[in-house]
Amino acid sequence: MSEPVSALPGFRNEGMISVVEAGPCGMITMRGDLTLPALAKAMTDVMKADIPAQRRITHCDHGRVAWMSPDELLLITDYGAVPGIIGDLQSAIGDAFVSLADVSDARAVFRLSGPQVCDVLAKICPVDFAAFEVGEIRRTRAAQVAAALLRDAEHAFTLVCFRSVAQYMGDLLATVSAPGGEVGLYRG
Amino acid sequence: MLLLSCPCCGVSAEETEFVNGGEAHLKRFGPGSDDADYESYMFNRKNPMGVHFERWRHVHGCGKWFIAARCTVTLEVFATYPAQTTEPPAEVVARIKARRPDWEGYK
């Protein structure tokens, strides 16, 4: 099998914050009625995770489960583990009306960290970061493109965007985090 | 700037995260309807100065459609509610009446 290649291999920018492209990352989109007992059972059996509450992220042995919309979950895991997990989930779900898709290669993932990360992101996202809690996911817009932000810690975010806009996102993050552009809105 | 709350994912955001879908609560007149009804359904839209009901989609968020009741003059949003309704819910109408006593009502 060929080597997986992420969108911007080795991309890294150190400015007001550190921006690092995360490399190949396994992602599974699960769509269906989140109240289905079969879906909850499959998640418990295979992922050892509860279905997250609205806009929340739950952690499990395989990685993380994020709430994307009222009928969509995103399973974030190791790149190589995706086919196995999809197979296990599919057999655990059985005939219930739930769709699973491997979207690992459709996305690009950036890890952002630094004390000024909220200030930098607030330049490009219409989001109130003061009300953005750790362990929350927020799908929003980063300048001209769609993005999802996962708050991993007080000063660390994971940003997920479409692979086709990875170069734009990398350049954008490098631009808005260039030294000299400090804002100082979210001090704390 | 218009601030909207999505009833599907609970996010409050400004309008660039959403996209407008035109007038809400339209009744479709399809094949078999008379010409006047069809023309009205197809082309005639309200353009009020004041209370208006609109469809919006949380395009950069959860992707769901919902309906917003807002004032086109002040940009005040009275309520947002799920799209699976054929007319404004009673509590939304009551809230608008409280804020705009001279509003002539829906329809």
Descriptive notes:
The complex is a heterodimer of chains A (188) and B (107). Chain A folds into two domains: 83 residues, Probable tRNA modification gtpase trme, domain 1 (Gyrase A, domain 2, 2-Layer Sandwich); 80 residues, Alpha-Beta Plaits. Chain A contains four helices and eleven strands; from the N terminus they run E-E-E-H-E-E-E-H-E-E-H-E-E-E-H. Chain A has a six-stranded antiparallel sheet, covered by helices on one side. A five-stranded antiparallel sheet of chain A has the order 4-5-6-3-7, covered by helices on one side. In chain A, a hairpin with a 2-residue loop joins strand 9 and strand 10. In chain A, helix 1 runs antiparallel to helix 2. Chain A is globular and about 55 Å long. With 107 residues, chain B is α+β, with helices and mostly antiparallel strands. Chain B has one domain: Folate-binding superfamily (Folate-binding fold). In chain B, strand 1 and strand 2 form a beta hairpin. The longest helix of chain B is centred in the last third of the chain and has 10 residues. The radius of gyration of chain B is 15 Å and the shape is globular. In chain B, 23% of the residues are buried. Chains A and B meet through strand 9 of A and strand 2 of B.
What secondary-structure arrangement, pairings included, does this model have?
The complex is a heterodimer of chains A (188) and B (107).
Chain A: E1 12-14, E2 18-21, E3 26-32, H1 37-47, E4 57-60, E5 63-69, E6 72-77, H2 82-93, E7 98-102, E8 107-113, H3 117-122, E9 137-142, E10 145-153, E11 156-162, H4 166-176
Helix pairs in contact in A: 1-2
Chain B: E1 3-5, E2 12-14, E3 19-23, H1 35-43, E4 51-57, E5 65-71, E6 77-82, H2 90-99
Antiparallel strand pairs in B: 1-2, 3-4, 4-5, 5-6
